[in-house]
Amino acid sequence: MDELEQDCLFCKIIRGEVPSYTIFENEDIYAFLDLSQVNPGHSLMIPKKHIVNLFDYTPNEAQKYLQYIPTIANAIKQFDSKITGMNITTNNGTSAGQVIMHSHIHFIPRFEGDGLTTATRNNEKKYTKADYQKIATQIKSNF
């Protein structure tokens, strides 16, 4: 546990200093109920190493920690036969809504007619083929 931060809420949860409702734990990750319970079963998965967000993962860390996403998603889905979908999200950085600076994945069960919406917009009319190509080319050059 030497890879944890002293004042991070999620590191405190991993160390057992702050109570939580565990749904899964192994040597790599810890998954627990989100107290906000956007929908019943809403859970978080965190690495047992302090990593700020996905931008900071090495390829090896991504393979080590993120491999559990399907396992946790399926266990949550099996908890209630009325679950028809699931939002699996992460907020990376404060401008994206990240509040706790320890990487975490949200698993939000979805039910038909639950009334939740996602904050997206369609800006397709603002872009030309040249605009799309320029953006794609610039991103591709970073690989």
Automatic annotation (TrEMBL):
- GO terms, biological process: nucleotide metabolic process
A Pfam family recorded for this sequence: HIT
Q: Tell me one GO molecular function of this protein.
A: catalytic activity
| Histidine triad motif (motif): residue ranges | 102-106
InterPro entries recorded for this chain?
HINT (IPR039384), Histidine_triad_CS (IPR019808), Histidine_triad_HIT (IPR001310), HIT-like (IPR011146), HIT-like_sf (IPR036265)
Query: So which domain of life are we looking at?
Result: Bacteria
Domain (HIT) spans: 9-117
Protein name (record): HIT family protein
Annotated organism of origin? Lactobacillus bombicola
Origin organism lineage: Bacteria, Bacillati, Bacillota, Bacilli, Lactobacillales
